[in-house]
Amino acid sequence: MQMVSTYLGIQMRHTVAAILCGSALILAAFAAPAPLRAADQPTVVAKPANSITVDPSGDMQENLQEALILAEPGTTILIPEGTYHFTGALSLDVPDVTVKGAGRDKTILSFKGQTSGSEGLLITSDRVRIEDLSVEDTPGDGIKAKGVDQLSLVNLRVEWTRGPHKDNGAYGLYPVESKNVLIDGALVRGASDAGIYVGQSQQIIVRNSVAEYNVAGIEIENSYFADVYGNISTHNTGGILIFDLPNLPQTGGHSIRVYNNKSINNDTPNFAPPGNVVGSVPRGTGIMVMSNRDVELFGNEMAENASVNLLILAYAYDYEDPRFNPLAQNIYVHDNIYGRGGWDPDGDAKKHIQPKTGLPLPDIVWDGAVDGIWAAFFGADEEDSIHIKEKDGTSFVNLDMVYDMIVPWDAGVDRDISAYHGSFETRAPVVLPQEKNLTEKSKTAP
Amino acid sequence: MRLLAVIWAFLSFLLAGIASADAGPNLEALLNPRPAKRLSEYQLFANPAAQAPNKGLHPYDLQQPLFTDYAQKYRFIFIPPGSKAAYSQDEVFDFPVGSVLVKTFAYPADFRQPNKAIRLVETRLLIHQRAGWTAFAYVWNEAQTDAVLKLAGKRLPLSWTDKKGVRRNINYVVPNKNQCKGCHTLNRKFSPIGPKARNLNKDFTYPSGAENQLSYWTKQGLLTGAPAPRKAPSIPAFGDASAPTALRARAYLDINCAHCHRREGPASTSGLFLTYGETQKAAWGYKKRPVAAGRGSGGLTYDIDPKHPDRSILIFRLQSNDPGIMMPEIGRTLVHTEGVQLLRNWIKSLEID
């Protein structure tokens, strides 16, 4: 084949040249579509082996977006050091692409002047890796990925630079309806909903990240199989939230492990726009679990959270969704460290919990919402119950919300932590296909 | 011998090229995954400036159009000779490979004289190629003689005088390829939105006279399997004051929102589903709480709060031009005042359960 084409090439050069010269223009006008010319190509400079560097001069919106559109699968798109300003959203829809900056504080994509598009960067293709860059001041979400497989967000910073503000975008890192999600080494500040939010997804790792000055630091919602570890969540309204909500395509969140995180000093007043569920999180909540199953919390440090260190709740709003289970069931809490908490509760913690427990609120607060009258009187079945194995002196309360509704004259709370002594076997860690070739080193929590 | 073959091949190539200028759109160019640099290379128009279609390209119209900053739209369809689209009652017709949906966006200098001094802005092609549907946008030159491919999108300052005589200035946004897919996605596949039976089931004034589009498509051999128009689904026109407000509102939401806000669409995560046939109340927004709306909720509790348009997130987001709040997310920079008014009237009229 090679020989034939070479031969043809020689023939053409030597013999058909005249015909070619005469017909080239006519051909271009009438026959096959003209190939892309220089002006259509992204203004990029070729680098060795499947990597291209985006030309930072000229219109970066156009240069980078063209690179993202024209990238072949397998390409690494390099963005040089610099601060770049965008007026519209960027998007990536080509699979197997890496977008890499020169470092988290060196390559900065600023969306302060954004007038169109509801996020900074939208990813809709599989096996994408974004690393070593920052996204700032998006009017909407920072980086969103929807419906993708094997997403890696590594060493990124997403920040609203004016600090907590109700007009900041909702989510910093926002994978949704996705599978095999890795968030590693992120720094997210100022989100008016959740700094790191993974929703309606499966097989998730969020690790070694810092979330601060957000309403929720890290939130896992309506998701299955998540490992959240080695993170620091501080100066948020709530540190780490594990939620499940009704009326969503994927519901019944379960199999979540939250371990070896620090959720401390979450002291930012809730600045979420009202109407959002996260708007009800009390300022100073360490970890909050709402209506999930099979959740294991261990090795976490929760301290200096003025409302409550650990809150386990049912979804308490009205809803119409026969698939939805509002209860938090089969929750295993063990080997955590509790510092000061609950001395100055906020919002619903002040309104609904403090009257029942007094100050300070106990380390662990469970609403006691259970499935049916039988369970209200005699405790939930083993597989639906909560299990606690903490060191002596850890304080606890079951608010007996359901029991109190049935027998209000016997209203009270149950502080006997030993009655909830139990455990279940930890499940195998989440293993992501995109990490199978990486060294063990990067998988270890700090 | 070999040399002769080469020459012969080139000559026949040339001839084919010349012949196709008369034979309607250039199918070969349309099927090439690499888009043409200039719109003219597809040979869609006999007279581009006048938007006069070439042979084989048929104009059509939708009962309810998508709102795009008040742009006028000229729509055309091409189906390769010898093949037909298959009718579907509720979804977009099944168009054969080689089909093209053409939409030109244009503004008259003054909307009080909508047929005069029209500026063509962009032409979007939705092409059913062998690997699936794909989309390209072409921006018209000053002289209005041809349009040039813009893969990464473009912003164009535009101005016109509206129906009330008010001067309007906008930064019109030509979408990039990914943004096209942002809306044109069904079950994660690129898909057309507009040409569904309910949207096409109306009369169109052809050069040969007015005729129902479904009948015309069938007669012209573009469509197979369509029932008589009166047996096909239909929706009221946007401005048809004689039609029930609820139907007009749902039809408006259907074409402006439901391409994303449906179970198979990009906004499936929201749980808000606005297709014309959606009957589950919480799904079409009735007392539905927001999920990941962020500040898009505007501090409100429900997507649609019956009787209270001002307490409905849907209205709040349609009235906003803030990119972190506005809906739809792309495709407009202006508020569609008339559309919002229709939805307000509808929400006011809703019964409270």
Give the gist of this structure.
The complex is a heterodimer of chains A (446) and B (353). Chain A is mainly beta and 446 residues long. Chain A has helices at residues 2-30, 60-70, 347-357, 373-378, 401-406, and strands at residues 44-47, 51-54, 76-78, 82-85, 88-92, 98-100, 107-110, 116-123, 129-136, 141-146, 149-159, 171-176, 179-184, 187-189, 194-199, 202-207, 210-212, 216-221, 224-229, 232-234, 238-243, 254-259, 262-264, 285-290, 293-298, 301-303, 308-313, 329-334, 337-338, 364-366, 386-389, 396-398.
Oligomer: heterodimer
Number of helices of chain A: 5
Backbone shape of chain B: globular
Give the end-to-end Cα distance of chain B, rounded to a whole number of Å.
84 Å
The whole-number mean of residue pLDDT values of chain B reads: 92
Provide the domain count of chain B. Answer: 2
The share of residues in extended strands of chain B comes to: 15-25%
Let me know the number of strands of chain B: 16
What's the alpha carbon Rg of chain B, rounded to whole Å? 22 Å
Percent helix range of chain A: 10-25%
Strands of chain A, total number: 32
User: Low-confidence parts of chain A lasting 5 or more residues at pLDDT below 50?
Assistant: 1-48
Mean pLDDT reading of chain A: 87
Structural class of chain A: mainly beta
What is the helix tally of chain B? Answer: 8
Q: Main sheet of chain A? A: 21 strands, mixed
Output the helix-strand order of chain B: HHEEEEEEEEEEEHEEHEEHEHHH
Largest sheet of chain B: 6 strands, antiparallel
Percent range for helical residues of chain B? Answer: 10-25%
* Rg from Cα of chain A: 27 Å
